[in-house]
């Protein structure tokens, strides 16, 4: 583990008319990676980015770490297209697959890291069989689908349970409603990767907000 939490802006909240500029700006502001939320209109009630957007992010930031979060009914169909488009990491939802271990191994066989995500209502024990396999565990602290939702504090107990059962080489990522006011609680619970969208992109000072998130301080 690093001695600081990683911060990944979610481009779901970026200005899509100037996506390349937005990606470069948050990276200059100190972001550690770029988070790409993918929704198919079936697994969640929204429709968002495909591999072409991932490829556009890669062109704008050739050396950035791109973290793809698949909120889709059939993630197996999207693994190769997103890695081909430049993704470094792919997280898929435990609720959408019957054999997650096989898909995690497929992602890893493509020289990418693999994560498993949980909706707020899904207990941490649903991913217990993957504690020795996944590189990252993504805990949703909002109901997936739309940005700007209110943070669900119940996610912190899930973070603590997972962190206590995995190694220091594995990460716990928290996604949804994360802001400078609750970042310290997220970090103290054991989260070492924070996804934040609207609070960063709505700000006129990306560097300040990213620094506050990493420090766990709203001051």
CATH class: Alpha Beta
Structural class: alpha/beta
Pick out the low-confidence regions. Answer: none
What portion of residues is helical? 25-40%
List the helices and strands and how they pair.
Layout: E1 6-9, H1 19-28, E2 34-39, H2 51-60, E3 66-71, H3 79-84, E4 89-93, H4 100-109, E5 113-118, E6 136-140, H5 155-163, E7 171-175, H6 183-189, E8 193-196, H7 198-201, H8 206-215
Parallel strand pairs: 1-8, 2-3, 3-4, 4-5, 5-6, 6-7, 7-8
Helix pairs in contact: 1-2
Can you offer a commentary on this structure?
With 219 residues, the chain is of the alpha/beta class. It has helices at residues 19-28, 51-60, 79-84, 100-109, 155-163, 183-189, 198-201, 206-215, and strands at residues 6-9, 34-39, 66-71, 89-93, 113-118, 136-140, 171-175, 193-196. The protein has an eight-stranded parallel beta sheet. The longest helix has 10 residues, at 19-28. The model has no long low-confidence stretch (mean pLDDT 95).
Which key phrases capture this entry?
alpha/beta, about 30% helix, about 220 residues, globular, 8-stranded parallel β-sheet, TIM Barrel
What would a concise description of this structure say?
The chain has helices at residues 19-28, 51-60, 79-84, 100-109, 155-163, 183-189, 198-201, 206-215, and strands spanning 6-9, 34-39, 66-71, 89-93, 113-118, 136-140, 171-175, 193-196.
């Amino acid at each position: 583990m690093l001695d600081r939490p990683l911060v990944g802006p979610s481009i779901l909240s970026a200005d899509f008319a100037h996506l390349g500029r937005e990606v470069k700006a948050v990276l200059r502001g100190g972001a550690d990676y770029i988070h790409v939320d993918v929704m198919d209109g079936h697994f969640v009630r929204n429709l968002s980015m495909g591999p072409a957007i991932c490829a556009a992010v890669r062109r704008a930031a050739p050396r950035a770490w791109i973290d793809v979060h698949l909120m889709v009914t059939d993630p197996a169909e999207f693994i190769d297209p997103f890695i081909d488009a430049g993704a470094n990491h792919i997280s898929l939802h435990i609720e959408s697959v019957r054999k997650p271990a096989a898909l995690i191994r497929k992602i890893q066989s493509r020289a990418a890291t693999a994560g498993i995500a949980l909706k707020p209502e899904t207990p941490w024990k649903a991913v217990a069989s993957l504690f020795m396999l996944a590189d990252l565990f993504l805990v949703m602290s909002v109901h997936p689908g739309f940005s700007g939702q209110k943070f669900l504090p119940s996610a912190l107990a899930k973070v603590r349970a997972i962190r206590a059962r995995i190694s220091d080489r594995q990460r716990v990522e928290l996604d949804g409603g994360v802001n400078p006011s609750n970042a310290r609680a997220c970090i103290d619970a054991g989260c070492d990767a924070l996804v934040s969208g609207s609070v960063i992109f709505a700000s006129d000072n990306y560097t300040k907000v990213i620094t506050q998130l990493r420090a766990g301080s709203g001051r």
